[in-house]
């Protein structure tokens, strides 16, 4: 296992199964953990070029709970990027003010570019439709806590599998844990070919289907996603698929009693609030798990946890 101190977190594919399990073990130690001296004098910079509630605020909360400080922005129009400064230069500047950077950016590959520019750890808070590795760590943590295992589960991914970066990261991670995967989407929003080729190469059993009701009885976990309107090049294409699936009480009549339903959130209309209090729903716990998981990642890359 590689050490974590000073390490970038760009893609879940950069982590072995053993390393992923180590992050989850470390996160357990950070549940309900408050220590105002652990990251004292450490500075986190949060650079958000796209909107976020959970990722940015759970990183910031984790840093505050551990005694660290935070600088950053969530509206790049108010920074010198709007005067034409490059991403490379911006990262070179911000690394002079901080010990670790979390960045969300609309362009795929931007996090890897930032990591090349910086000499401090870069954590990818989502790069376009590509990857969202810290979400994957918290998704796995949530699956482990709610199912008692992450091995050999039948996992359904529902909705926007083309643009959903959380799906791309989680499918890659679950391929290390022997999952059987069901990709449930309209034809227009199927998984990208590079992810499919990866799964084939790894010998993973998977199914690409459109029928939610026929598939949901088989599942241990259903990972629901929002159709990502903002990533469609043509608004007319979004109109064709919006509202195509809805997880609600009528669907729950067909599922195993132990099914757990996750969603990275935000939701629009694909996940009915009528199921929020059902024992299947774990998406609010999932969002809350962002704090211990991101605290663990900060502590690991800053070298105060091993
Ligand atoms: N799940 C997630 O990434 O949420 P935010 O966009 O609110 O950060």
Topology:
Blueprint: H1 17-29, E1 43-48, H2 54-65, E2 69-73, H3 87-94, E3 100-105, H4 110-117, E4 122-127, H5 133-147, E5 154-158, H6 165-174, E6 180-184, H7 193-201, E7 206-209, H8 212-215, E8 221-224, H9 235-241, H10 249-252, E9 260-262, H11 283-288, H12 290-301
Parallel strand pairs: 1-2, 1-3, 3-4, 5-6, 5-8, 6-7, 8-9
Helix pairs in contact: 1-5, 1-12, 2-12, 3-4, 5-6, 5-12
Distance between the termini: 11 Å
Helical residues, percent: 25-40%
**Overall structural domain count:** 2
Q: Beta-sheet strand percentage?
A: 5-15%
- CATH class identity of the largest domain: Alpha Beta
Stretches where pLDDT is under 50 for at least 5 consecutive residues are: none
Overall 3D geometry? Answer: globular
Task: Give Rg in angstroms.
Answer: 19 Å
Q: CATH H level of the largest domain: which superfamily? A: Aspartate/ornithine carbamoyltransferase
Q: What this model shows, in words?
A:
This protein is 35% helix and 14% strand. With 306 residues, the protein is α/β, with parallel strands linked by helices. It folds into two domains: 12-131 and 288-301, Aspartate/ornithine carbamoyltransferase (Rossmann fold); 133-284, Rossmann fold (3-Layer(aba) Sandwich), CATH 3.40.50. α6 links the parallel β5 and β6 (180-184). It is globular, with a radius of gyration of 19 Å. The chain starts with 16 loop residues before the first helix and ends in a 5-residue tail after the last helix. The mean pLDDT is 96. The structure holds phosphoric acid mono(formamide)ester. Residues 52-55, 126, 135, 264-266 line the site of phosphoric acid mono(formamide)ester.
């Amino acid at each position: 296992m590689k050490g974590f101190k000073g390490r970038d977190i760009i893609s879940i594919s950069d982590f072995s199964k053993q390393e992923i399990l180590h992050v989850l073990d470390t996160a357990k130690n950070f549940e309900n953990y408050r220590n105002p001296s652990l990251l004292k004098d450490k500075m986190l910079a949060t650079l958000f070029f796209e909107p976020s509630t959970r990722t940015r605020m759970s990183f910031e909360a984790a840093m505050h709970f551990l005694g660290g400080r935070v600088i950053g922005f969530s509206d790049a129009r108010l920074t010198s990027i709007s005067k034409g400064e490059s991403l490379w230069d911006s990262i070179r500047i911000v690394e002079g003010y901080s010990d670790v950077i979390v960045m969300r950016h609309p362009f795929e590959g931007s996090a890897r570019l930032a990591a090349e520019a910086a000499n401090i750890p870069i954590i990818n808070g989502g790069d376009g439709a590509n990857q969202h590795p810290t979400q994957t760590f918290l998704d796995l943590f949530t699956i482990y806590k709610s199912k008692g295992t992450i091995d050999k589960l039948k996992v359904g991914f529902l909705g926007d599998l083309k643009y959903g970066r959380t799906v791309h990261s989680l499918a890659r991670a679950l391929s290390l844990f022997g999952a059987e995967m069901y990709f449930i989407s309209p034809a227009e929003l199927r998984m990208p070919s590079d992810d499919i080729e990866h799964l084939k190469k790894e010998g993973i059993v998977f199914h690409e289907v459109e029928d939610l009701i026929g598939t949901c009885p088989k599942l241990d976990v259903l990972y629901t996603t929002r159709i990502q309107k903002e990533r469609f090049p043509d608004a007319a294409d979004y109109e064709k698929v919006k509202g195509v699936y809805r997880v609600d009480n009528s669907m729950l009549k067909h599922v195993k009693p132990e099914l757990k339903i996750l969603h990275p959130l935000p939701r629009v209309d694909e996940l009915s609030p009528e199921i929020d209090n059902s024992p299947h729903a774990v998406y609010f716990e999932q969002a809350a798990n962002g704090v211990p998981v991101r605290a663990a990642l900060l502590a690991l890359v800053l070298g105060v946890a091993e």
